[in-house]
Amino acid sequence: MTNALSTENAVARLVDEAAVRDTVLRFADVAVRGDFDAFRTLWSEDALWVIGGTDGQPFERRAEGADQIVALYRTLREERDYFIQFVIPGVVEMDGDTATARSMCHEAARGPGESYYRNNGVWTDTFRRTDNGWVFTNRTYEYLWLDFSPFTGDISWGSADAR
Protein backbone atom coordinates (compact mmCIF):
# COMPACT_ATOMS: atom_id res chain seq x y z
CA MET A 1 0.00 0.00 0.00
CA THR A 2 2.85 2.40 0.79
CA ASN A 3 4.40 1.93 -2.65
CA ALA A 4 1.07 2.64 -4.37
CA LEU A 5 0.64 5.78 -2.28
CA SER A 6 4.19 6.89 -3.11
CA THR A 7 3.53 6.33 -6.80
CA GLU A 8 0.26 8.23 -6.56
CA ASN A 9 2.01 11.15 -4.80
CA ALA A 10 4.81 11.14 -7.37
CA VAL A 11 2.34 11.23 -10.26
CA ALA A 12 0.37 14.07 -8.61
CA ARG A 13 3.60 16.03 -8.14
CA LEU A 14 4.59 15.51 -11.80
CA VAL A 15 1.14 16.66 -12.93
CA ASP A 16 1.43 19.79 -10.77
CA GLU A 17 4.96 20.53 -12.03
CA ALA A 18 3.75 20.18 -15.62
CA ALA A 19 0.86 22.57 -14.91
CA VAL A 20 3.25 25.15 -13.41
CA ARG A 21 5.53 24.89 -16.46
CA ASP A 22 2.47 25.22 -18.68
CA THR A 23 1.66 28.54 -16.98
CA VAL A 24 5.20 29.77 -17.75
CA LEU A 25 4.87 28.69 -21.39
CA ARG A 26 1.40 30.21 -21.73
CA PHE A 27 2.85 33.54 -20.59
CA ALA A 28 5.34 33.47 -23.49
CA ASP A 29 2.62 32.40 -25.93
CA VAL A 30 0.15 35.15 -25.04
CA ALA A 31 2.92 37.75 -24.79
CA VAL A 32 4.00 37.03 -28.37
CA ARG A 33 0.42 36.95 -29.67
CA GLY A 34 -0.69 40.05 -27.77
CA ASP A 35 -3.68 38.24 -26.26
CA PHE A 36 -4.64 40.55 -23.37
CA ASP A 37 -7.61 38.47 -22.20
CA ALA A 38 -5.58 35.26 -21.97
CA PHE A 39 -2.76 37.19 -20.28
CA ARG A 40 -5.20 38.25 -17.54
CA THR A 41 -6.07 34.63 -16.68
CA LEU A 42 -2.45 33.88 -15.72
CA TRP A 43 -2.43 36.15 -12.65
CA SER A 44 -3.90 36.11 -9.16
CA GLU A 45 -5.86 39.22 -8.20
CA ASP A 46 -3.11 40.29 -5.77
CA ALA A 47 -0.13 39.40 -7.98
CA LEU A 48 3.05 41.44 -8.36
CA TRP A 49 4.94 41.72 -11.69
CA VAL A 50 8.41 43.26 -11.68
CA ILE A 51 10.66 43.67 -14.72
CA GLY A 52 14.26 44.68 -14.02
CA GLY A 53 13.46 45.31 -10.40
CA THR A 54 16.59 44.08 -8.67
CA ASP A 55 19.51 46.32 -7.65
CA GLY A 56 21.32 47.81 -10.61
CA GLN A 57 18.80 46.64 -13.20
CA PRO A 58 17.73 49.01 -15.99
CA PHE A 59 14.19 49.99 -16.90
CA GLU A 60 12.35 48.87 -13.81
CA ARG A 61 8.65 48.33 -14.38
CA ARG A 62 6.34 47.26 -11.58
CA ALA A 63 2.62 46.51 -11.40
CA GLU A 64 0.52 45.15 -8.56
CA GLY A 65 -2.88 43.53 -8.99
CA ALA A 66 -4.11 41.75 -12.08
CA ASP A 67 -5.71 44.84 -13.64
CA GLN A 68 -2.55 46.95 -13.30
CA ILE A 69 -0.46 44.05 -14.60
CA VAL A 70 -2.60 43.79 -17.74
CA ALA A 71 -2.41 47.58 -18.20
CA LEU A 72 1.40 47.46 -17.99
CA TYR A 73 1.55 44.55 -20.41
CA ARG A 74 -0.75 46.39 -22.84
CA THR A 75 1.52 49.47 -22.71
CA LEU A 76 4.66 47.41 -23.30
CA ARG A 77 3.20 45.19 -26.03
CA GLU A 78 1.17 47.65 -28.10
CA GLU A 79 4.19 49.82 -28.90
CA ARG A 80 6.06 46.92 -30.52
CA ASP A 81 6.03 46.14 -34.25
CA TYR A 82 7.66 42.81 -33.49
CA PHE A 83 8.06 40.85 -30.26
CA ILE A 84 9.22 37.32 -29.53
CA GLN A 85 9.97 35.56 -26.26
CA PHE A 86 11.65 32.18 -25.94
CA VAL A 87 11.51 30.65 -22.49
CA ILE A 88 13.28 27.58 -21.18
CA PRO A 89 11.34 26.29 -18.18
CA GLY A 90 13.65 25.55 -15.31
CA VAL A 91 13.49 24.15 -11.83
CA VAL A 92 10.08 23.92 -10.17
CA GLU A 93 9.71 23.51 -6.40
CA MET A 94 6.31 22.37 -5.14
CA ASP A 95 4.90 23.09 -1.68
CA GLY A 96 1.28 22.01 -1.50
CA ASP A 97 -0.85 24.66 -3.21
CA THR A 98 2.11 26.96 -3.89
CA ALA A 99 5.15 26.60 -6.11
CA THR A 100 8.25 28.47 -7.23
CA ALA A 101 10.13 28.30 -10.52
CA ARG A 102 13.11 29.85 -12.28
CA SER A 103 13.24 30.00 -16.08
CA MET A 104 15.75 31.32 -18.59
CA CYS A 105 14.41 33.71 -21.23
CA HIS A 106 15.45 35.39 -24.49
CA GLU A 107 13.44 38.27 -25.96
CA ALA A 108 13.76 40.38 -29.08
CA ALA A 109 11.61 43.33 -30.12
CA ARG A 110 11.39 46.15 -32.60
CA GLY A 111 9.45 49.37 -32.23
CA PRO A 112 8.31 51.91 -31.76
CA GLY A 113 10.03 53.27 -34.83
CA GLU A 114 13.60 52.14 -35.25
CA SER A 115 14.18 51.11 -31.64
CA TYR A 116 15.39 47.57 -31.00
CA TYR A 117 16.22 45.37 -28.08
CA ARG A 118 17.34 41.85 -27.36
CA ASN A 119 17.91 40.44 -23.94
CA ASN A 120 18.55 37.32 -21.95
CA GLY A 121 17.25 37.06 -18.44
CA VAL A 122 15.85 34.96 -15.63
CA TRP A 123 12.24 34.78 -14.51
CA THR A 124 11.77 34.03 -10.81
CA ASP A 125 8.16 33.07 -10.16
CA THR A 126 5.79 32.11 -7.39
CA PHE A 127 2.46 30.42 -8.10
CA ARG A 128 -0.74 29.50 -6.34
CA ARG A 129 -3.13 26.70 -7.19
CA THR A 130 -6.67 27.96 -7.87
CA ASP A 131 -9.87 26.34 -9.04
CA ASN A 132 -8.81 27.38 -12.56
CA GLY A 133 -5.26 26.04 -12.34
CA TRP A 134 -1.92 27.56 -11.38
CA VAL A 135 -1.50 31.35 -11.53
CA PHE A 136 1.36 33.74 -10.91
CA THR A 137 1.38 35.50 -7.55
CA ASN A 138 4.78 37.07 -8.16
CA ARG A 139 6.84 37.26 -11.36
CA THR A 140 10.21 39.03 -11.42
CA TYR A 141 12.51 39.39 -14.43
CA GLU A 142 16.24 39.96 -13.99
CA TYR A 143 18.22 41.07 -17.04
CA LEU A 144 21.44 39.14 -17.64
CA TRP A 145 22.31 40.70 -21.02
CA LEU A 146 20.77 43.61 -22.90
CA ASP A 147 21.49 44.84 -26.44
CA PHE A 148 19.91 47.81 -28.23
CA SER A 149 21.71 47.46 -31.55
CA PRO A 150 19.55 47.19 -34.70
CA PHE A 151 18.98 43.76 -36.16
CA THR A 152 18.00 42.79 -39.67
CA GLY A 153 15.07 40.82 -40.94
CA ASP A 154 11.55 41.34 -42.17
CA ILE A 155 8.40 40.96 -40.17
CA SER A 156 6.02 38.30 -41.47
CA TRP A 157 2.59 39.79 -41.95
CA GLY A 158 1.04 36.36 -42.47
CA SER A 159 -0.65 36.12 -39.09
CA ALA A 160 -2.10 38.86 -36.93
CA ASP A 161 -1.68 36.55 -33.94
CA ALA A 162 2.10 36.37 -34.43
CA ARG A 163 2.95 40.04 -34.78
TrEMBL record:
InterPro entries named among the record's database cross-references: NTF2-like_dom_sf (IPR032710), SnoaL-like (IPR037401)
SnoaL-like domain ranges (all copies): 13-140
Lineage top rank: taxon: Bacteria
Record Pfam families: SnoaL_4
CDD domains, sorted: NTF2_like
Protein name, per record: SnoaL-like domain-containing protein
The organism of origin for this protein: Actinoplanes cyaneus
Lineage: Bacteria, Bacillati, Actinomycetota, Actinomycetes, Micromonosporales
